[in-house]
Amino acid sequence: MNSADLKRAKKDVRRRVLEIRAASTPEERAANADVVAARCLDLPEVAAAKVVMAFWTFGSELPTMPVIEALLAAGVQVALPRIVDGDLEVRTWEPGDLMTQARFGALEPAGGTIVAPGDVDVVFTPAVAFDRSGRRVGYGGGFYDRFFPKTDAVRVGLAMALQVLDEDLPAGPFDLVVQAIVTEHEVIRANAAS
């Protein structure tokens, strides 16, 4: 698949899944988020983690605050991504810290201490869609795919079950997979090469 075909295929997946995801209600998303948070804390990788990079929810995404609060209650250092010069920079975050809006709508830390990518144990990873092999279609910025090679952190996708497709998602050579996907229905251990 050439680059133009890959972009078109990803755009089609984005359109289809975002339409379905947007039809979910805030109440459904909140209920799913509580279940996903509990499943995340049961993951051995998360239980052993000292630093977890989460992400701040925007739009119709699965709310991440329940898992962030659970991590903080367990004494885990939570970090959030901030986009700096087109790349993700990891910054510590605690409740009450100032947030600013990124150009695409998500909130990111205005302050906090920079965390070296090698110090991150787990990266909770957003996406529009995942497949059961750990491939993901994000929002098209490539931020996470550029960040992943900088860290040995375990990559865990957080999503509602409706975002996990049975079809193989389109992927190029620079699209890196997640090792696990947590939904309200299950934990999927991905089997694709990383």
SSE diagram, text form:
Layout: H1 3-22, H2 26-42, H3 44-47, E1 51-53, H4 65-73, E2 77-84, E3 87-92, E4 99-101, E5 107-109, E6 114-115, E7 122-125, E8 129-131, E9 136-137, H5 143-147, E10 154-158, E11 164-165, E12 180-182, E13 187-189
Parallel strand pairs: 1-2, 1-7, 7-10, 8-11, 10-12
Antiparallel strand pairs: 2-3, 3-6, 4-5, 8-9, 12-13
Helix pairs in contact: 2-4
Instruction: Give me the number of helical elements.
Output: 5
Number of domains: 1
Q: Judging by the overall fold, what is the CATH architecture?
A: 3-Layer(aba) Sandwich
What structural class is derived from the secondary structure elements? alpha/beta
Question: Tell me, what is the CATH class?
Answer: Alpha Beta
**Helix share bin:** 25-40%
Order of helices and strands: HHHEHEEEEEEEEHEEEE
Order of strands, main sheet, comes to 6-3-2-1-7-10-12-13
Percentage of β-strand residues: 15-25%
Task: Look at the structure and give the mean pLDDT.
Answer: 92
Summarize the structure in words:
The protein is 28% helix and 24% strand. By secondary structure, the protein is an alpha/beta fold. It has one domain (3-189): NagB/RpiA/CoA transferase-like (Rossmann fold), CATH 3.40.50. Helix 2 (26-42) packs parallel to helix 4 (65-73). The longest helix is centred in the first third of the chain and has 20 residues, at 3-22. The radius of gyration is 16 Å and the shape is globular.
Give a concise summary.
The chain is of the alpha/beta class. The chain has helices spanning 3-22, 26-42, 44-47, 65-73, 143-147; strands at 51-53, 77-84, 87-92, 99-101, 107-109, 114-115, 122-125, 129-131, 136-137, 154-158, 164-165, 180-182, 187-189.
